[in-house]
Amino acid sequence: MAHARGMLEGRAVLRESVEQWWAAQGFVFPSAFARRARIGFVSRHVATARYEDCAFILLAERAGLCPVWSTYLRDRFVTHSPVKASYVAPKVVGGFSPRGFPEIRKIVLADSQICEKERTPLDRILLGSGEAMVAWHRRLLQAVYPGAWTTDPSDMYLARGWAKGYYPLLLSLAVAHGVLFEDFHGGETGEGLMRFTREVFEPAFDAVAATFGVAPMLVPLPWWRELGYYVAHHRADQWRTDRSILKHLLQ
Q1: Residue 96, strand partner residues
Q2: Which domain of life does the UniProt lineage start with (predicted)?
Q3: CB burial readout 30-50, b (16+ within 10 A) else e
Q4: In whole angstroms, how far apart are CA 70 and each of 43, 65, 109, 226, 247?
Q5: Is the Cα torsion angle 186, 192, 198, 201 positive or negative in sign?
Q6: Burial of 166 by CB count in 10 Å (0-12 exposed, 13-18 middle, 19+ buried)?
Q7: Chain centre distance of CA 71
Q8: Is 70 helix (H, G, I), strand (E, B) or coil?
Q9: Most buried residue, 2, 64, 103, 147, by CB count within 10 Å?
């Protein structure tokens, strides 16, 4: 990870080639990547502030990179995805016990069964107050990390169809414009992730490496159960002290 920024700066000559490759396939290159240098990014459907996002912020800062969240807001909600399920029913850390254990409360933002039955796009899910679900998450992320940059290439994702079609484009962002923080061999989705890695990630990784002559730059993003919890709005300015969740990242 310490060398990620140096590797990224050394590949600046490839930035134009990547942007031209996007254009040749009929897609607009994400402005967040075109306008900024030294980017570290994660790819999640919704930009929010789980403790996983906090871990990403800490690791990106440690590497001297600017955190960016690449999203897919127009994807449809399904209950079998642990991440998507958490968007409508986040488990929030409201505080800590005297022994340091996180105190969790579950907030129901929307009816997951109705969202799945109606195949609702994530950006169309509404809270009881009428606020968009993604806006709730955006407010939380901005409270935790003010000024957080996000980008949403949903048009490209939808045009390409399933992940096999769009993953080479996503990974190409890690050739010369940014460093992708992710772990495709571990995480919360278990067996589903192993299949995704084998059938989608590895072929896309190899294809991008063959196209540009260098492999996409990845930094492993850690995972343990507590990283799936959400920061509470009223604790947004305290998350950097939550050592029982972020563990060795704060040492």
Answers
A1: 102
A2: Bacteria
A3: bebbeeeebbbbbbbbbbbbb
A4: 5, 15, 22, 22, 26
A5: negative
A6: buried
A7: 7
A8: strand
A9: 64
Q: Which two tokens stand for residue 96?
A: 């800590």
Q: What is the rounded distance in angstroms from the CA atom of residue 215 to the CA atom of residue 143? A: 35
Q: What is the pLDDT along the chain (251 residues), one digit of tens a residue?
A: 557 778 888 898 999 999 999 999 999 999 889 877 789 999 999 999 999 999 999 999 999 999 999 999 999 999 989 999 999 999 999 999 988 889 999 999 999 999 999 999 999 999 988 999 999 999 999 999 999 999 999 999 999 988 899 999 999 999 999 999 998 776 666 555 678 888 999 999 999 999 999 999 999 999 999 999 999 999 999 999 999 999 888 87
How far apart, in whole angstroms, are the C-alpha atoms of residue 70 and residue 153?
8
